[in-house]
Design goal:
This protein is mainly α and 183 residues long. It is 83% helix and 0% strand.
């Protein structure tokens, strides 16, 4: 398989993981609020903490990808957000959950700008549009399947399983990315 096809395929898988991680939190609202005794307002702040971290760090992460290259930065981004996904599972209070979600958003913020930089570096101009679309926020018919999958994981085992389950997949994806995508 040509390197540019691997690039598009791996960034598509990455975008699916991004989506699953984002929705896992909202689908696990009931167990999380129950276990941490959060009000609806506090849970709203938890969700907003992710958005704030994401918004504040997206541009710096893109600049870092421009400086260091998308291969290194995206591997680091995936590792960072994997760590904070796992740490979400061990949050014991409203404050720790806020911090975990903020840093989770900050870690995930670099994914799309770094993918865009990779496409710019490695794809011909005529192929960039389709590749960019494959990693867009609407990743197609799989969205509903991801939502159902996250919801079903969060029910029987509590929110701990929903947060821990994606971590190994993400780290595996980061390692494959680092080893198989050209520099």
């Amino acid at each position: 398989m040509p390197a540019r096809c691997r690039l598009v395929a791996m960034t598509f898988v990455l975008s699916m993981l991004l989506y699953v991680d984002r929705i896992a939190m909202s689908t696990a609202k009931v167990p999380i609020t129950g276990q941490l005794a959060l009000t609806d307002t506090q849970f709203g702040w938890v969700l907003s903490a992710f958005a704030l971290g994401y918004a504040l760090f997206q541009t710096p992460a893109g600049a870092l990808a421009d400086r260091l290259g998308p291969r290194k930065v995206l591997a680091g981004v995936v590792m960072a957000w994997s760590v904070f996904t796992g740490l979400t599972a061990v949050a014991w209070s409203f404050g720790t959950m806020l911090l975990c979600r903020f840093f989770f958003g900050a870690g995930e913020a670099g994914a799309y700008p770094t993918c865009a930089r990779a496409f710019y570096n490695w794809l011909p101009v005529g192929e960039r549009g389709l590749a960019t679309r494959s990693t867009g926020e609407d990743v197609g018919p799989g969205r509903g399947d991801c939502r159902r999958s996250s919801a079903s994981r969060s029910r029987p085992q509590g929110f701990l399983a929903a947060c821990c389950f994606p971590g190994p997949r993400q780290r595996s994806c980061a390692c494959r990315w680092r080893s198989s995508v050209p520099t």
